[in-house]
Amino acid sequence: MLGLGRTGSSGSNGSGDFVIAFSTAREPRTQLSNDSMSPLFEAVIEATEEAIYNSLLRAHDTSGRGHTVKALPLRETLDVLRKYNAIALTQSDYLNRLQAIAQDISALKPEFAQLSKFSVAKNTRTDQLEITYGYHTHNPQHRGGWTSGVPNPDDDGVWFYIDFHDAGSTAQIHTQPIYPALHLGDRVVEFLILEGATTKSVGGRITAILKAHGAQ
């Protein structure tokens, strides 16, 4: 039963498990029918799960016998859970994550000359949850494919695009199979990049930044 509970499942009256229940009442007040046992199993599992979460997340520092046990720091714990997509992300979480990614990209400027003009404020569109940047680019000279619809880099240039979008989006830029899809919470992380022939490649570093902020 414990194993089932840890995988998100539960037991039912017909599952073939043996469950022993104890009561502190002097005598049974209500005798449940067989069909009523499954809801009882569910209630016990949910109550036990809630009690565990409360003991972990609502505890206070405890001292005794010369020792002190610190309570889990709630904000930091939630940050870790959000980072690894263990709990649902809010719009504010996505915005904060996007800005943190932009800041990490900006920190690469000393190492990559093509990022010298990158600006967190100018290249991040918080209303669209996207980052767009181009350096030494020109209009595409060809037709067909997604690269014909975006700025193309000169030999020493770069262009890239990052966004968090709904999985059901049918926008053309979200249907490109060029790169393996990454996910963050319930959003798809789009990352497209074009790099010039002589440009020191930064694509791998940006991918690492995305993954460091929870994209999987």
Walk me through this protein's architecture.
With 216 residues, the protein is α+β, with helices and mostly antiparallel strands. The protein folds into 2 domains: 2-69, no CATH class; 88-212, no CATH class. The protein contains 6 helices and 7 strands. A 5-stranded antiparallel sheet has the order 3-4-5-7-6. It has a two-stranded antiparallel sheet with strand order 1-2. The protein is elongated, with a radius of gyration of 26 Å.
Short synopsis of the structure:
This protein has 216 residues and is an alpha+beta fold. It has helices at 2-6, 37-57, 74-83, 91-106, 120-123, 203-212; strands spanning 62-64, 67-69, 124-125, 130-138, 152-166, 182-184, 187-195. The strands form two sheets. It has a five-stranded antiparallel sheet. The protein has a two-stranded antiparallel ribbon with strand order 1-2.
Can you lay out the helices and strands and say which pair or pack?
Layout: H1 2-6, H2 37-57, E1 62-64, E2 67-69, H3 74-83, H4 91-106, H5 120-123, E3 124-125, E4 130-138, E5 152-166, E6 182-184, E7 187-195, H6 203-212
Antiparallel strand pairs: 1-2, 3-4, 4-5, 5-7, 6-7
